Amino acid sequence: xxxxxxxxxxxxxxxxxxxxxxxxxxxxxxxxxxxxxxxxxxxxxxxxxxxxxxxxxxxxxxxxxxxxxxxxxxxxxxxxxxxxxxxxxxxxxxxxxxxxxxxxxxxxxxxxxxxxxxxxxxxxxxxxxxxxxxxxxxxxxxxxxxxxxxxxxxxxxxxxxxxxxxxxxxxxxxxxxxxxxxxxxxxxxxxxxxxxxxxxxxxxxxxxxxxxxxxxxxxxxxxxxxxxxxxxxxxxxxxxxxxxxxxxxxxxxxxxxxxxxxxxxxxxxxxxxxxxxxxxxxxxxxxxxxxxxxxxxxxxxxxxxxxxxxxxxxxxxxxxxxxxxxxxxxxxxxxxxxxxxxxxxxxxxxxxxxxxxxxxxxxxxxxxxxxxxxxxxxxxxxxxxxxxxxxxxxxxxxxxxxxxxxxxxxxxxxxxxxxxxxxxxxxxxxxxxxxxxxxxxxxxxxxxxxx
Length: 451
Prior knowledge:
By secondary structure, the protein is mostly helical. The chain contains 23 helices and no strands. The longest helix is centred in the middle third of the chain and has 19 residues, at about 180-195. The protein starts with 7 loop residues before the first helix and ends in a 15-residue tail after the last helix.
């Protein structure tokens, strides 16, 4: 890290000029609104697999990953990814505008004012080479990258809404543009997905997302993610046969695209077509052997295949599941949820000692995210209830999970399990009283979050 002497006045002036640049650092992408580890893993793995099918989104991946690294405090990795982005787009200056701006910000953060000013000037020079033909003052490449960054960064509604508005405004000038139509469709799909989780599902016939996805497909028929999203919309509306048509087309177009394969495989798993899912997953595993997400999904399919066969404790299938979960944990130790599932799978093959050891290791982790801690409590409760027969301990952990509030589906699972345990005539665990306490806004007792 280099420190360049700079008088206070010039520092303020440099900061003012940097804020005029369009890049991730000024797009209000807040680390508290997302899961940085998940984003790092997702984009790192996608960039390592074939991404020929998603156009500009792949080109923007290195810039996006560099900003995620910056938020994580991984400055060296951030710098390396920005340099790779410059190399990738060395023949197209207009695609370097955001990269130069990010480099200016990064070098200023590192205390290297000379390099920051150099990249600031390069950004300005790049702007001058790009004609402005779209809304506001942003160039097309910059506008596009900003919209996709918002769409990918967080699942919070206002990020999707901001992305939607950018695509929508661009479409006013270029109504038949392939990228703007695809981006607008993706934004609508994500926003409707949030409404679905609130039981406000729209039918395929009246869904604006479906209408826009179909328009995007006419303009970009070889985009597999459009087919995936249409397939998911059909599936969620009970039109399973139609969903299969879209999913088969998607996997046929992009059998080596990790993002597409994972989506299609999850659909197949929901359809209980475990062997089909395993076929497409194991095929791409040869290309992406170090994908933690891939190992997790493979493990899940082995587990659910055993359940589907009526043999939930099938040792052969569960050991395959455990192998892939272990690989996923080795490749991405910061991804907690699969490790909680791994502990439970050990219990299901009657290795309760290893299950207990893994659970206690997870509980002892510092800075465990609330949603992960909630999953730990729910699954540790299941372990005590079903494998150890320790009902009292299970109840306490389900209660711990609920005290973390309704931050994930695990809260509902904890509540459901408590209600099943509660005896209406003799509530010895005082479950009814505990659940009633949430009707007035809930209870919070952070001191009870860990065993």
